[in-house]
Amino acid sequence: MTLGAIEAGGTKFVCATGNEQGDVFDRVSIPTTTPAETMAAVDDYFTTHPVDAIGIGSFGPIGVNPDTPKYGYITTTPKPGWGDFNFLGHLQAKFDMPLYWTTDVNEAAYGEAEMGIAKDVPNSIYMTIGTGVGAGVIANNRIFNGRTHTELGHMRINRLPGDDFKSACPYHDICLEGLAAGPAVGQRTGKAGKDVAADDPVWAIVADYIAQACVNLTVSFAPDKIILNGGVMKQKQLFPLIHEKFQSYLNGYEEVPPLAEYIVPAGLGDNSGVVGGLLLAKLALTEA
Ligand SMILES: Nc1ncnc2c1ncn2[C@@H]1O[C@H](COP(=O)(O)OP(=O)(O)OP(=O)(O)O)[C@@H](O)[C@H]1O
Ligand SMILES: [Zn+2]
Fold first, then answer.
1. Measured from the CB, is residue 128 less than 6 Å from ligand 1?
2. ipTM of the complex
3. Each residue of 257-273: pLDDT tens digit?
4. 166 CA to centre of ligand 2 in angstroms
5. How many whole angstroms from 276 Cα to the centroid of ligand 2?
6. Residue-by-residue DSSP string for the chain
7. What is this structure's pTM?
8. Quick one: 13 and 75 in the same domain?
């Protein structure tokens, strides 16, 4: 059996084939331009690389609730051409096979939960801190959705005293994404995140906000693990800073696993999404 995965991001789409153990056989990267152009390349890929099912994780916001008219759509993105695009419908018209449709972060969360750092625990959260912040919640080995998917990157956090940085989120004066994602780091320092020194004071601010988010995730979802990935988390010195602040903000309220095993980097690195897609394809097949 051959499985397919799509990791649909705002700058590139990755299409891949592999098996139910999460082994990747082949992959291609397609620039995200217009839906017509990008989807034609996706269609071509799975026509020349036949599969039995496809797991799809898309940038959003997207419709994930089958009871709503916009199920399967990319809904309100400002990305030209992609707003109100019926992504799942497009694929269903081309490929007569089981398809699993979810967000890019839910897909990556599923990959880490099944084959990555969280494979031995049933409850985990995968949060990526890159251009934006997004998180996928796995509860009892399943992707958690409510009325729609979560938007945990936009959780409110408390500003540190003296931090008067103007939020980079156009909607929120104080959200994690607006104060601590890659663009905020860039605007705070005047440099690209990768060029900011490891001991720059900006990292203590970023770590504080991420630690606040981890406390919020802990009390909201009671995960066994919180996985932090994305461009900003390439700064590995953030982990001990986050652990220290997390400890002080949780303040002994509840027992959590040892922090070095609780708030951790991804196990699959840049492969979490593609592996998640393959395993969601398998799930779609077993549930079809
Ligand atoms: N080594 C690094 N240290 C700090 N920041 C970094 C590093 N590498 C990339 N970044 C920042 O991370 C952001 C890019 O994030 P990422 O590499 O996760 O890609 P992305 O796909 O654009 O993000 P998203 O998942 O939000 O769409 C940019 O703002 C970039 O400046
Ligand atoms: Zn926001």
1. yes
2. 0.97
3. 999 999 999 999 999 99
4. 12
5. 26
6. --EEEEEE-SSEEEEEEE-TT--EEEEEEEE---HHHHHHHHHHHHHHS--SEEEEEE-SSB---TTSTTTTEE-S--STTTTTEEHHHHHHHH--S-EEEEEHHHHHHHHHHHHSTTTT-S-EEEEEESSSEEEEEEETTEE--SSS---GGG-B-PPPTT--PPPS-SS-SSBHHHHHSHHHHHHHHSS-GGGS-TT-THHHHHHHHHHHHHHHHHHHH--SEEEEESGGGG-TTHHHHHHHHHHHHHTTSS----HHHHEEE-SSGGGHHHHHHHHHHHHHHHH-
7. 0.97
8. yes
